[in-house]
Amino acid sequence: MITTNDVAKVFDTVLSIPGMNEVVKIDLKISRKNVLLLNHVIERGLAMESDTPGLLGSLSEDGLSELRNVSEECLQKAGLVELNQKLTTLSEACK
C-alpha cells in the first residue's frame, strides 16, 4: 500500500523535473465569474493544512506565495479586487 510519505516523494520528484520552474505564457480568456471562482478555489486550497497529502501539501512557502500571487493577479486583471474583498467580508460575516 502506498503511504502519504510515498505520495509526497512522488509529488516532490515531479516538481523537481528540469524545466518545471520555467515561466510559461498562457493566453487565457475566461469570464469574470470564473475568475472569482478560480480565486475562491485557490484560496480554499491554500487554507488547507500543510500536512494534507497531495500536491498542495508538498509545496514550499515560496510555491504557495507564487500561487497566491497568480490568483491576485487574475483578480486585478479582471477588475474584481474590490468585489472579491466585499464578497469575502460578507461570507466571513455569515460564519
Q: Would you write up a description of this structure?
A:
The chain is mainly alpha-helical. It has one domain (4-93). 61% of the residues lie in helices and 0% in strands. It has four helices and no strands. The protein has helices spanning 4-15, 32-46, 61-78, 81-93. α2 packs antiparallel against α3 (61-78). The longest helix has 18 residues, at 61-78. It starts with a helix and ends with a helix.
What is this structure's SSE topology?
Blueprint: H1 4-15, H2 32-46, H3 61-78, H4 81-93
Helix pairs in contact: 2-3
Largest sheet features: none
How would you classify the helix and strand content by structural class?
mainly alpha
- Termini Cα gap: 39 Å
How large, in whole angstroms, is the Cα Rg?
16 Å
Strand residue content: under 5%
Strands, count: 0
Question: What's the number of helices?
Answer: 4
Q: Which stretches of 5+ consecutive residues score pLDDT under 50?
A: none
> How do the SSEs run, as a string of H and E?
HHHH
Helicity range:
55-70%
Q: How does the overall form come out from the CA principal axes?
A: flat
Q: Write down the domain tally.
A: 1
Rounded mean pLDDT is: 87
